[in-house]
Write a structure and sequence with these properties.
Blueprint: H1 3-13, H2 28-32, H3 46-55, E1 70-73, H4 92-109, H5 130-136, E2 155-156, E3 159-160, E4 165-167, H6 178-191, E5 230-235, E6 239-244, E7 250-255, E8 271-277, E9 280-286, E10 304-313, E11 316-324, E12 333-341, H7 358-376
Parallel strand pairs: 7-8
Antiparallel strand pairs: 1-5, 1-12, 2-3, 4-12, 5-6, 6-7, 8-9, 9-10, 10-11, 11-12
């Protein structure tokens, strides 16, 4: 493991993976272009890497398989898709600039507020960061103290990556197939007949505390670039459990010869079956719920994700995934994400549906409709 990777492992092992920091997620090409340089770490020598490999032995469960158990995080500033104009990896100079920039933003966000500041304008203040503004609505409900969006570039196989997607080679998702475009348009036409507040089912899954924000629980399991990107893994001889901090989703992966659910039964997080290929846990998931979209695309009945979990070192799991859906996508796509050990507790994510106000949200919409009808008379 090179010096930069060891520094990142040490940071994560001491719980400094992405402490209270900024929610700002910028295209890394823009961040890398800034002049905010920090102390630059250089790759370790081959002898140092070899010595580190000799020192560490893969821990194993009583069943003899690699021990994946513990608390982990996939928080990172590396985006899912690669920004235009970048190659697959950063230089170490770019890594230093990017992470230094993020640390500076985080430090600025953690400064004490001015007690003599004026009242905010009517309607609040919007930061320009879509995730933070969506969460707080300009009211400042989420400041840097509450956000754990990641402050490190993703290092995979010793390479500082510019995107989590590695295939296609451009690091970007393949386009939808012609049939996929037609189905998405049909889905939108169907949804357009309903108002946003017509019924509970029109409200987002996350607001209703049904599923993780983004694709934290997966599959595939991806960072949300906001907060709570932590996981707890527990193994038994015939099951692997992955508890996702976000909305406390729990995946139960059965091991052994798959006994697939019928095609019409499509639960949240799908039907996952795992097997060991040497020291790698391979998990294949089908039957994903049709409302559990991935990157904004609803899965078809032919959707399948193949995940691979491999212990890379004391502090890292290499997580690889391949998404296949010949109905919706023009081709498969693959990604690689480092999961880093979190030496700390994962606390309960006490999600409360619509802030205990979903009934009031819908009642308010009905009142607004009555008022509009009266005004039209």
């Amino acid at each position: 493991m090179d010096t930069c990777a060891r520094i990142r492992s040490a940071d994560r092992a001491t719980g400094r993976l992405a402490g209270p920091g900024s929610a700002l997620v910028l295209p890394l090409v823009a961040v890398a272009a800034t002049g905010l340089a920090t102390g630059l770490a250089t790759p370790a020598t081959a002898q140092e890497r070899e010595a580190a490999a000799v020192e560490w032995v893969v821990p194993r469960t009583p069943a003899g398989h690699p021990d994946l158990q513990g608390n982990w995080s996939n928080a990172t500033v590396t985006p899912i898709q690669r920004p235009d104009g970048q190659g697959p990896t950063h230089t170490w100079e770019s890594v230093a600039r990017i992470e230094g920039f993020v640390r500076n933003i985080r430090a600025a966000g953690a400064r004490d507020s001015d007690p003599d500041r004026e009242a905010p304008p009517v309607g609040g203040i919007f930061s320009g960061d879509a995730r933070r503004d969506a969460a707080s609505g300009g009211t400042g409900g989420y400041n840097s103290f509450y956000i754990d969006s990641g402050d490190l570039v993703a290092i995979f196989n010793g390479e500082p990556r510019t995107s989590l997607v590695v295939d296609p080679e451009n690091g970007r998702l393949p386009p939808l197939s012609e049939q996929g475009r037609e189905l998405r348009a049909e889905r939108r036409r169907f949804g357009s007949q309903f108002g946003q507040y017509d019924n509970p089912e029109n409200r987002p899954l996350a607001e209703r505390c049904i599923m993780s924000f983004g694709s934290n629980a997966g599959p595939p399991m991806l960072p949300n670039y906001f907060y709570n990107n932590n996981y707890t893994i527990v193994q038994t001889p015939d099951h692997v459990m992955i508890m996702t901090e976000m909305v406390h989703d729990v995946r139960i992966i059965r091991l052994g010869e798959p006994k697939r659910l019928p095609a019409h039964i499509r639960p949240w997080m799908g039907d996952s079956w795992g097997r060991w290929e040497g020291d790698t846990l391979v998990v294949e998931t089908t039957n994903l719920h049709p409302n559990q979209t991935l990157q904004g695309v609803a899965p078809s009945e032919e959707f399948k994700v193949t995940e691979r979990f491999t212990r890379a070192d004391e502090h890292t799991i290499h997580y690889e995934f391949t998404v296949e859906d010949p109905v919706m996508w023009s081709g498969p796509w693959r990604g690689e994400v480092p999961f880093t050990r979190l030496d700390g507790l994962v606390y309960e994510y006490a999600c409360h549906e619509g802030n205990y106000a979903l009934e009031n949200v819908l009642r308010g919409a009905r009142a607004q409709e009555r008022q509009e009808r009266q005004e039209r008379r």
